[in-house]
Amino acid sequence: MIFEIDAHGGVPIYRQIMDQVRRQIVTGQMAEGEPLEQVRSLAARLKVNPMTVSKAYGYLEREGIVARRRGLGLFVAPVEKDARIRKKKEMLEGEIKRAAASAVHMGFSEEEASDLFQKHYRQCRSGKEGAES
Questions:
Q1: pTM of the model
Q2: Same domain, yes or no, for 72 and 17?
């Protein structure tokens, strides 16, 4: 699992871990039955307290996204196709909502914001994200 943790961004680290694990599961980057990295190992790699990782994993387990196998650790739980689609839409909606609020606060018109979104969407679809941003 690849993580990007921002210790100064205002979002608690356990939430960042949860969001990134959830995203990797929902997008299929982590497959059903795949083990999660052990708490101590991930904590050491991210240079965070093991309780922070444990807290994130605990919440994900309560959500049913991961399942504990006694003596073996945590694994990606089965996710129904409809639930996966619903969760992906929720995640995208949250990001679009934040981007829309930023556009309004910066004084962009709806058309200008929409044009920017479409431009970046097309770049991502064509694989040119890094080239023209």
A1: 0.72
A2: yes
